[in-house]
Amino acid sequence: MNKLCYLGGIGIMLLFMVGCSSSDNEPINYQIETTEEGSSQCVIPVYAANENPAEGLLFEGVGNVLYIVDGQLMGDGFSFSTPVRQGLVEMVPYSQIDTWTIRANVAEKQAYWVRHMSTERYTYIKLRISYLTGVNAGIEYLIDDVIEVAPGEEGNVNANVPTADEKYVTDYAMPRMNPMNLYVEHIVNNEDNAILNYALEWNEEKKHAAWVAFTFDEVTKADQTNRPDDDPWATDPMLPTGMSPTDADHRADGFDRGHLCASNDRLFTVAANEQTFYYSNISPMMSSFNGGFWASFEILVQNWGRSDDYDKVYVAKGGTLDQLLINYTGVKAGNDGVIPKTDENGFTIHGLACPKYYFMAVLTEHEGEYHAIGFWMEHRDDYGYEYDEFAPSDVMKTYALSIDDLEERTGLDFFCNLPDVIENEVESSWSEADWTW
Description:
Blueprint: E1 3-7, E2 17-18, E3 40-45, E4 55-57, E5 67-69, E6 72-74, E7 78-80, E8 84-85, E9 104-105, E10 110-117, E11 121-132, E12 136-148, E13 182-190, E14 193-203, E15 208-216, E16 256-259, H1 270-275, E17 282-285, H2 287-305, E18 312-319, E19 357-366, E20 369-378, H3 393-397, E21 400-401, H4 403-410, H5 420-427
Antiparallel strand pairs: 1-2, 1-4, 3-12, 5-6, 6-9, 7-10, 8-10, 10-11, 11-12, 13-14, 14-15, 15-18, 16-17, 18-19, 19-20, 20-21
């Protein structure tokens, strides 16, 4: 069997067959050892930490590419066993592997179990680094087992199913999809790469997002721009005409235009920041809640998202559309000078749903380990925090709860794309020690 190589960075995928032991940059006399009958051999580039990988190894039946960057094996959907200096034929069965990490240090003569997980299948691969030159790596590999995962079977029974128009629904940040709502992905271009900025699920009846979801990673956690002085409020161009709220829907109602995905959550490009000002991402919030209490949790999550303690931080936020603030008349006027009010159904004077509670669900990923935490808070204006006056960590901790508990309160299924064995573990409880406060 020959290898499939992937050439990225030009907008299309090129698959081609390559000889088993040759490369334009491969030194003479470097040979890839065969340590198990039936294995395949290939040569892939080795990239420095500051390089954008363009070529890697695409295994048959696996939709993601394996790279070597900064001396490590990595790739979306992949995890790795602890390396052992041996041949492929000597490796223990993958069922005996207890620890998997999302990256693995590469060294000559080291063998690894490589696992790739998708919503459709788990693929288990034996892989050995035969040699390293600093420019290339000679690799021997063997696809050992493929386990098809269908809804209702072991693996991930509640995962979202991707379609051509819903490319990112399997991202770990996404809650379980509700077919009654409209799903929207907001994409930005960054160095000629299309990147998910954030996604949302839109409830047309309530004129409000059921949730927004996004990820802090090496690209999206960058702090490279600022909230503009003249906020670029806009209707959402991804919603059908007439479905998105407009500026008039948020005028003179006594409520702030409160971000769900915060402006400061998306600072990696100007375009990414501007998309947070779509009215589909806005909720009618009491002024002190928006600028003080809710903002306290926003800042906390942003600190986690930009911390080097985590490889990725997955976030879902929203307000309760099945529990609205009914017959409310505020005591404090909003920033527009108007006393905020809602009707007997929990809608503002312009017909926007006003949630009674707001929530955040956070999942961190670091070297194959996951931790999750939820936050649940009532929509009130008497917390005692105003703009630029934020709740201390000891107060915020009292609003933390497990994801299982948050799911019971919201009716949402968070982090549904995690393999069930991981999801069940991380959602059952939370530990204060797992988080930097």
